[in-house]
Amino acid sequence: MRQSLFFRKxxxxxxxxVAWGGAQAQAQTEAAAQPDGAAAAAAPAASVVVTGSRAxxxxxxDSMSPIQVLGGxxxxxxxxxxxxxxxxxxxxxxxxxxxxxxxxxSITRVATLRGLNPDQVLILVNGKRRHISSIINVAxxxxxxxxxxxxxxxxxxxxxxxxxxxxxxxxxxxxxxxAGVINVILKKKDHGGSVNAQAGKYFDGDGMSTNLNxxxxxxxxxxxxxxxxxxxxxxxxxxxxxDGTIASRYYAGDPRNDQPQGVxxxxxGIPASRTGSVGFNAEKPLGGGATAYAFGTYSExxxxxxxxxxxxxxxxxxxxxxxxxxxxxxxxxxRDESLxxxxxxxxxxxxxxxxxxxxxxxxxYVNLTDSVNPTYxxxxxxxxxxxxxDATEWxxxxxxxxxxxxxxxxxxxxxxxxxxxxxxxxxxxAGDVYSYADGGQPQLTGPNAGKYVTIPGSQGYPGYxxxxxxxxxRHNAGVYIDLDTKLNADWSIGLAARQERYSDFGSxxxxxxxxxxxxxxxxxxxxxxxxxxxxxxxGQQYYAASATSQYKGVDYNIVNLPVSSAAARLLGATDLDxxxxxxxxxxxxWTPMKNATVTVDAYQIDITGRIVQSSNIGLSAxxxxxxxxxxxxxxxxxxxxxxxxxFLNGVDTRTRGIDVVASTMQRLPAGYGRITWSLGANVxxxxxxxxxxxxxxxxxxxxxxxxxNQDYLTQTTPKNKLVLTADWSSGxxxxxxxxxxxxxxxxxxxxxxxxxxxxxxxxxxxxLSYYFTDNLRLSVGAQNLFNKYPDRAxxxxxxxxxxxxxxxxxxxxxxxxSGGNYYATLNYEWE
Length: 831
What we know:
This protein has 11 helices and 40 strands.
């Protein structure tokens, strides 16, 4: 009931605020049509950023580390409803795999930066750490094992701009900043507002989406500001499966088996979902150089997706309930909240200071419909509460900075100091008893009537058992120092160090050295070297659950085991350690002319002890299950399970690549406006440099971390990605044309000879806008204008006797597998 009330109230609140803001705007004098180029963003090189140095603010072009800035203008013209989709659309170093299929990962997709795991990039909001999701990616093909931040829980209408630091920054910000940092800066004004409404649909006629964003700003007690945000997103299902064929759908001898047995798989595309979010950002001067501030977000979402078809003659079916078979449907609900409160100021013995506390939490609950627990026979429910997860994070921070004049260097020494205390929790909640229990009812029909089924629980997604439920917590404390200055007029240098101590695995020390040398006003070199770490999440340490997987369309049950459990130790598990990284970067910044900038940065990221999810131990490379493992697991109270897996520090990896970013503004002849050109490119190559002993072990016929799993880690993201954008404006008109080139990649498979290569793909996006007034804009556009699809998956993965041949597109596709979509956007602003 809580969620349904939320979804009813949010649109009403949005409508009331729009009406109020619109009436306020109409009282103002309407201006003429949008002046030439007014929609164009400021030159990125001139943008002032706060990310990358804890001690000072500087322009992007002057940064010692590569930073890209995405303005609100870029976000509004993306044509995408969620922040993750926006970043993947415009940044060449970010990819967002489809992760299609009937599992939680297909509903809560997560993006990667530089091909690394989603939890190896740190997410900040207004410079404060954002909490991670409670959902762990245990079933996808990319980023397997990650417990990452769900960026789509941040209202899109709340964002002023985004700063993306593509460099290791653990010494400055702590755990997770191996691949880089994404800092989301919220809008902060004391007047005006905006409403943005968007609707779209896919070329194939499905996948209708609506997106409504509202921002209203107020003065707060005279000299303060309060910005309020609201966001409502609705996405309907897309399905790109084809009719599969199933032999002997019914029991032997049934004449219906002689008829065509076409089955449409429903969950191969974009899941149905809806999200409602609200947020605020407030600031109030207190006098004496002090300012109080607070910001926060609250979101609720529901995602639905279908799981694979179960035939009528399946031993785990109850034909009295589903005489023709059934298709379970998984429903994921989430509640997400975040609140930051702080006071900042200056003049504390010459220091600027900031004291804050931040709380964030993500709570999820999983339901299953259209399913059955066959061990209860005809008494089985068809809908189940499977269980849920809770992940919270609370932190307290004190940050200080000031500049010290000196006669040694060419500039003052900027000093940043700080301390942080953080407490994390993770909990698993058990499902209802029918979702996991064995009701003791034997099969009622078919050749095995009278026998007991081997897989109790709700079919398609077994419930979390009381033995799986747990509540876990840890804390850590850290201190840092951040220094930068100029050795001479042309040479900048920065040093950072951070010491952290975790209650569950001990201490870690990180450091970073950055430098920039200006050879001329138009050309500079920059470089950095650092070490970092990523602490294993509590979810990775304590996650426990059963799940259904497939080998060539045949179901088998897997159990995820906490690394500290006796059953996991039997399979070779040990306590998790932090991942350790070494980052190297060297690059150049070139400003060949006014309004033109080119940056080129090469990087190498070495990660030791990378946290991975093991193979499905007990399933051999040829698809044979080791029955002795199932028997042994029963002695640990784990029934109906064929294979097991857990998290481990499994491999060392090396990622090398190059980022290129270029932009320029071209003025056309009088009356024809101007064009802003931008080019972004990423070339990325990852490899496993060492397989650790724990991953080499062979248990129950399975290598703990097999070659296939290693290939999942290194081959499933494009080797390169290029984004070329032309943004034209003239008078009241604006047009955007973007061409994206996705390089090749491979989706591995546990089936011998069944790897699925994906060739190079070119996608075209286009948008045309018209400004009726300074305040009112209408845009129409299309993503993937020519309706490109991924290559088909290798048919060797499919069993002709099962439905899974219907899933024939490459599920790791970074541009989805639903084809092109079109949309229209209406944007109204008031002062």
